[in-house]
Design brief:
By secondary structure, the chain is mainly alpha-helical. The chain is built from 21 helices and 4 strands. Its main location: membrane.
Length: 479
């Protein structure tokens, strides 16, 4: 379908993989979703196991990234650098995440979800310790660059592992919950910043110690979890193809997917870019804005962050659930329209309670829209490459949004009002633009609600290899 037809959001025209494994386009009637508790009962114990492992990994990732955002002022004092230099580390982390997404994603599509995830988590734990003890500013920047590469591999694997192992009807709700792992990580980091940082003998470094321990613990637990179902197909060892044959078939599938999905790949990069501008524009500088412009203490700024992240978690679950009813794209459009209405409450008041309420509703909208993204990108992706495709487009979008914190800091620092950087006006302008952009770009895409991507064999699957080998043998015999 063309863009004009896609924009008719009220018609719910869907292009998806049906229950027979065929790609079809049809108009799907909107039916009320079952009670959320009924949806939750659809999952087996194994479904929940994979979901919670994906959620735990993404939560650890969210904690690790946002730890720096919460202690930017302390890092500025430690390295005797202005805040603009410290936020450069955030920019560089985002820039290099796409590299890790491509490397780890390809490994997960070829070898399975489990071990690429474990290795990546252990690397992140080590780099969290490195962040705490970087002796110089240059070393700190170098560690955060490496951290960005490692961090890039987590989201795609988490989403693929969680969603490919659960019923189609439950994916909307659990996509919304899964995406809020990032907010849960931010929330945990904010709590540590309030409870532990002021009282720890090493000060802000404790936030990185906890992050390293948390991430390492997730990796340890992952070692005792079986491989994702898609990669557990029984094989006869005598018929198992050689490694070279497997790689050849994998590359063949990858080239075919590249030819068929390159336009979708570019669209998803644009979609991810505007989504990431939305989240980073609303979150990265919020703690600094509350402390520097509004004059609140580190504790009260962190408390407002916690209130906002509570809104984020609720918004993701609610919007994810209803996306199974009204469609992924219309859910996003409604969420960003609500967010636009909440911006004045987010920036205009001076009282802590009003600002915290504004943050709650803005984060509800931002993460409500984001709650749809894990399942939306998995539905858009080539079904054999749901490790590398969603993760890579997501992280390239992150890369394109990397300057968000830096641009907001520089703009606010150059726009002084009452002797303080004008973060409120800068953040208002940014969010108005990106909320509108998210709504328009999302509406232009296809609806793929209810796609049965789990029915498609993985890239380089043994069945495909054996079929290829038989065809080659037949061709040789005919000669």
């Amino acid at each position: 379908m063309g863009i004009r037809q896609n924009l008719k959001l009220w018609e719910n025209n869907v292009t998806h993989i049906d229950e027979n494994g065929d790609m079809v386009t049809e108009r799907v009637p909107r039916v009320l979703p079952p009670n959320p508790w009924k949806v939750m009962r659809m999952l087996s114990a194994e479904n929940y196991m994979f979901f919670f492992m994906g959620l735990a990994a993404w939560t650890a990732d969210g904690y690790d990234f946002n730890a720096v955002n919460l202690v930017t002022t302390q890092l500025s004092a430690t390295y005797h650098k202005p805040l603009t230099d410290i936020t450069l580390s955030i920019t560089l982390t985002l820039l290099f995440r796409s590299v890790g997404a491509a490397i780890i994603g390809i490994a997960s599509d070829m070898y399975g979800r489990k071990w690429p995830m474990i290795v990546d988590l252990y690397i992140l734990a080590v780099l969290q310790v490195g962040t705490a003890y970087a002796p110089t500013y240059a070393a700190f920047i170098g560690v955060r660059v490496l951290f960005g590469i490692a961090m890039g591999g987590i989201w795609g694997l988490s989403a693929a592992m969680a969603l490919e192992n659960m019923p189609v009807e439950a994916r909307g709700l659990f996509s919304g919950i899964l995406q809020q792992g990032y907010s849960m990580g931010y929330l945990i980091a904010a709590v540590i910043n309030i409870v532990a940082v002021p009282h720890a003998s090493e000060g802000y470094k404790i936030i990185f110690h906890v992050g390293a321990g948390f991430t390492g613990l997730v990796a340890i637990v992952q070692m005792f979890i079986p491989e994702s179902r898609l990669f557990r197909a029984p094989e006869n060892p005598e018929e198992r193809p050689k490694s070279g044959t497997r790689i050849k078939m994998f590359v063949k599938d990858l080239k075919l997917a590249a030819r068929q999905y390159w336009k979708m790949f570019l669209y998803c990069i644009l979609l991810s870019a505007v989504f990431n501008w939305m989240s980073h524009g609303a979150q990265d500088m919020y703690s600094t804005y509350m402390k520097v412009q509004k004059g609140f203490s580190n504790t009260n700024a962190s408390r407002a962050t916690i209130v906002g992240q509570c809104g984020a978690v609720i918004g993701g679950a609610v919007c994810g659930y209803y996306s199974q009813f009204i469609g992924r794209r219309l859910t996003v459009v409604i969420a960003v329209c609500f967010g636009l209405c909440m911006i004045p409450l987010w920036t205009l008041p001076s009282a802590w309670g009003s600002l915290a309420a504004g943050n709650f509703f803005v984060q509800f909208a931002v993460n409500g829209a984001w709650g749809v993204m894990p399942v939306l990108l998995n539905e858009y992706a080539p079904p054999q490459f749901r490790g590398v495709f969603p993760g890579t487009v997501y992280q390239i979008g992150n890369m394109l949004s990397a300057p968000a914190a830096q641009i907001q800091t520089v703009s606010a620092s150059g726009w002084i009002v009452n002797g303080k950087p004008n973060y409120s006006q800068v953040m208002t302008i940014v969010l108005c633009i990106v909320f509108a952009a998210v709504g328009v770009v999302t509406a232009c895409g296809q609806e793929r609600l209810g796609s049965h991507f789990e029915l498609v064999k993985r890239a380089g699957a043994e069945e495909n290899i054996q079929k290829e080998m038989k065809e080659n043998c037949n061709n040789v015999g005919m000669r």
